[in-house]
UniProtKB/TrEMBL annotation:
Example of a GO MF term: oxidoreductase activity
Originating species: Monosiga brevicollis (Choanoflagellate)
Entry-linked Gene3D superfamilies: NADP-dependent oxidoreductase domain
Boundaries of every NADP-dependent oxidoreductase domain copy: 36-319
SUPFAM superfamilies: NAD(P)-linked oxidoreductase
CDD domains: AKR_galDH (cd19163)
Protein name: NADP-dependent oxidoreductase domain-containing protein
Amino acid sequence: MQPGRPATFVEGFHDEEAVKKMPYRQLSHTGWTVAPLALGGSAFGSVFGDTSDTESAAVIRSAIQRGINLVDTAPWYGHGKSERVLGQTLPHLPRDSFYLMSKVGRYKPNVQEMFDFRAERVLASIDESLERLGVAYLDVGQVHDPEFAPSLDLICSETLPALLKAKEAGKIRHIGITGYPLDVHHYLVEHSPVRIDTALTYCHYTLNDSTLLEHLDFYAAHDIDVINASALSMGLLSTDGPPSWHPAGPAIKAACQDALALCQSRGVNLSRLALHYSLSNPRIATTLVSTAHLAQLEANLDVCLHGLAPVETSTLDELCTGVFGSLHGKETWEGVEVDNYWKQLGQRPNVTS
């Protein structure tokens, strides 16, 4: 990792000293130079609790001015709220000072209206996102959680081609996929008639699950930029613990509770260790972390820029070899949420045909 000015640096807007300290990395396909710490937009939609739009705006501006240059959001986050909050701030910042990603396919809390991957809806969704965000284009338009589609062939025949139309119209510049099951990424990459540029993967490069490492060669072979997300494993690795809806099984939750107890006995913060772990692999250029609080942004930047204290490093080593040593790659919650979704709908098609 080498510090320096990325292409997103704007003279007179950025905090130049902060940008100089940022250990930027390269994404091979897009050619972007990105900060290891990226800004996730879920918190701006009050997904994790009540937030202040004023403080959210301050977080967005401060993060970008200090060199964080990748921002990700979705219509699903707060059902449009995240995009609207970003839309109150981003139009007042230089558009070339950040890369902006949003998603299509997942929308409303009502299970009957939650997903819609049809081409017509995809094209309308892109327009809606651009209006809410107050921008003329997205740097990446992504398929949101395609594992919930009635068929992955629908993603290949309608969703991805619709994103290509949006790209040809100048509304998006790159096409991406997201989702939890990594084998779904493999299927889409191998069957899509459309070039896939980025893959957003979450909860697969964390203290409790490092299975993303087994797939990096696949993405590299297809020249796809990997964007990591959820360093805290959707709250499993936080001091407060996971939300009640978290789909992880008892073995994962027990290991994370053991990790928290060890950290507390050493007087260290588990979330700092988890964030450092996710940011430290040079093969993973950037990790999305979401916060709507300035104090937490400062804490995240501190880990990114300064690393860990010796006691934190030794505790992290102990967690990796001890508490989580036998867990990697063996315990996930793949299929749990998808099965629950189709049970609520009362049907379950074959999602790989």
